[in-house]
């Protein structure tokens, strides 16, 4: 393994350091235990020369080139799918273990899809030198579901998402902020089309206005009316949990929240469940916070969950008509556990392994 002479610690590259996920990644790397030697920040040539704050210093961004991976042990990729598809194999061929946040390799049978609280062992077997991170919607619920699955055996999921605009990157955030500035302080939202006329034709990465609205669509079109985001939730939940036949029904919805995805979950298990058992599991599961006292006004919402690491769970109920099913409301910061934090955790697993620990 290449080691910097200065520190003897592994060298990390962050590809896509200037993006929505990359920005949170730099904060996380500045906050977590400092296991890295050099951290090289990489983005498109547009950003080369920019200086970004990392571990209390200013670090200059370099352009993505083959040479940028010289001496790199672990390379995190936080870039669009097509950029990862081209460059992750190049980084791997240069000897780096790639931890990729894009959708480019998630369903490749030779690429493990890893959530450290659920299937950490999978990160060790990586024939292509690439480990994938699940998408943010799956990640926002999977830690809680993995804990319940380990006890009760998951059989079926019925899920609706309430997804934040930052799931669509910096453009998503910019679009919501701009639209909010156009509708704030008005009486819009009372007649058909009034919001649409106020925000104009440019709806950014979304098919409809997102301010003062909910949009039942995320991603691109797949067969039979499904969206790409919905297919990811189904396919990636199956892969992470090791349940290739898990029944999953899902509808993904975009809401006017900046960051933190929420989901309602109807989870069916192999055997009867009780709320007390479920609460005990969720209260003790690593990476999960049980926040569930509706009588006291306690349930998770994005305004409190944003900026935090765990998966928050509330509204835990046994299904009214099925003693083997639970109803949950789950919130997770889509840029932290939903992206950057999970990547950082996987990279730490890889670094520990490379270091022989
Ligand atoms: N947002 C989320 O909640 C979330 C969650 C999980 C996974 N992801 C995935 O993470 C990845 C990054 O998402 P994001 O939301 O952070 O996107 P973003 O805000 O649009 O940022 C994209 C990043 O990629 C860089 N980039 C774009 N084209 C490049 C090129 N040709 N060469 C080198 N760098 C290039 C950009 O650099 P410049 O600034 O120089 O253009 C920027 O750093 C995507 O694959 C996304 O699907 C996102």
Automatic annotation (TrEMBL):
<keyword id="KW-0472">Membrane</keyword>
<dbReference type="InterPro" id="IPR012280">
    <property type="entry name" value="Semialdhyde_DH_dimer_dom"/>
</dbReference>
<feature type="transmembrane region" description="Helical">
    <location>
        <begin position="12"/>
        <end position="30"/>
    </location>
</feature>
<keyword id="KW-0521">NADP</keyword>
<keyword id="KW-0812">Transmembrane</keyword>
<feature type="domain" description="Semialdehyde dehydrogenase NAD-binding">
    <location>
        <begin position="11"/>
        <end position="126"/>
    </location>
</feature>
<dbReference type="GO" id="GO:0004073">
    <property type="term" value="F:aspartate-semialdehyde dehydrogenase activity"/>
</dbReference>
<comment type="similarity">
    <text>Belongs to the aspartate-semialdehyde dehydrogenase family.</text>
</comment>
<comment type="subunit">
    <text>Homodimer.</text>
</comment>
<comment type="pathway">
    <text>Amino-acid biosynthesis; L-threonine biosynthesis; L-threonine from L-aspartate: step 2/5.</text>
</comment>
<feature type="binding site">
    <location>
        <begin position="18"/>
        <end position="21"/>
    </location>
    <ligand>
        <name>NADP(+)</name>
    </ligand>
</feature>
<feature type="binding site">
    <location>
        <begin position="46"/>
        <end position="47"/>
    </location>
    <ligand>
        <name>NADP(+)</name>
    </ligand>
</feature>
<dbReference type="GO" id="GO:0009097">
    <property type="term" value="P:isoleucine biosynthetic process"/>
</dbReference>
<dbReference type="InterPro" id="IPR012080">
    <property type="entry name" value="Asp_semialdehyde_DH"/>
</dbReference>
<feature type="binding site">
    <location>
        <position position="334"/>
    </location>
    <ligand>
        <name>NADP(+)</name>
    </ligand>
</feature>
<keyword id="KW-0457">Lysine biosynthesis</keyword>
<feature type="binding site">
    <location>
        <position position="106"/>
    </location>
    <ligand>
        <name>phosphate</name>
    </ligand>
</feature>
<feature type="active site" description="Acyl-thioester intermediate">
    <location>
        <position position="136"/>
    </location>
</feature>
<dbReference type="GO" id="GO:0009088">
    <property type="term" value="P:threonine biosynthetic process"/>
</dbReference>
<dbReference type="GO" id="GO:0071266">
    <property type="term" value="P:'de novo' L-methionine biosynthetic process"/>
</dbReference>
<feature type="binding site">
    <location>
        <position position="254"/>
    </location>
    <ligand>
        <name>substrate</name>
    </ligand>
</feature>
<dbReference type="GO" id="GO:0019877">
    <property type="term" value="P:diaminopimelate biosynthetic process"/>
</dbReference>
<dbReference type="GO" id="GO:0009089">
    <property type="term" value="P:lysine biosynthetic process via diaminopimelate"/>
</dbReference>
<comment type="pathway">
    <text>Amino-acid biosynthesis; L-lysine biosynthesis via DAP pathway; (S)-tetrahydrodipicolinate from L-aspartate: step 2/4.</text>
</comment>
<dbReference type="GO" id="GO:0046983">
    <property type="term" value="F:protein dimerization activity"/>
</dbReference>
<dbReference type="InterPro" id="IPR005986">
    <property type="entry name" value="Asp_semialdehyde_DH_beta"/>
</dbReference>
<dbReference type="InterPro" id="IPR036291">
    <property type="entry name" value="NAD(P)-bd_dom_sf"/>
</dbReference>
<comment type="function">
    <text>Catalyzes the NADPH-dependent formation of L-aspartate-semialdehyde (L-ASA) by the reductive dephosphorylation of L-aspartyl-4-phosphate.</text>
</comment>
<keyword id="KW-0791">Threonine biosynthesis</keyword>
<dbReference type="GO" id="GO:0050661">
    <property type="term" value="F:NADP binding"/>
</dbReference>
<feature type="binding site">
    <location>
        <begin position="166"/>
        <end position="167"/>
    </location>
    <ligand>
        <name>NADP(+)</name>
    </ligand>
</feature>
<dbReference type="Pfam" id="PF02774">
    <property type="entry name" value="Semialdhyde_dhC"/>
</dbReference>
<keyword id="KW-0486">Methionine biosynthesis</keyword>
<keyword id="KW-0560">Oxidoreductase</keyword>
<keyword id="KW-1133">Transmembrane helix</keyword>
<dbReference type="InterPro" id="IPR000534">
    <property type="entry name" value="Semialdehyde_DH_NAD-bd"/>
</dbReference>
<feature type="binding site">
    <location>
        <position position="163"/>
    </location>
    <ligand>
        <name>substrate</name>
    </ligand>
</feature>
<keyword id="KW-0220">Diaminopimelate biosynthesis</keyword>
<dbReference type="GO" id="GO:0051287">
    <property type="term" value="F:NAD binding"/>
</dbReference>
<feature type="active site" description="Proton acceptor">
    <location>
        <position position="261"/>
    </location>
</feature>
<keyword id="KW-0028">Amino-acid biosynthesis</keyword>
<protein>
    <recommendedName>
        <fullName>Aspartate-semialdehyde dehydrogenase</fullName>
        <ecNumber>1.2.1.11</ecNumber>
    </recommendedName>
</protein>
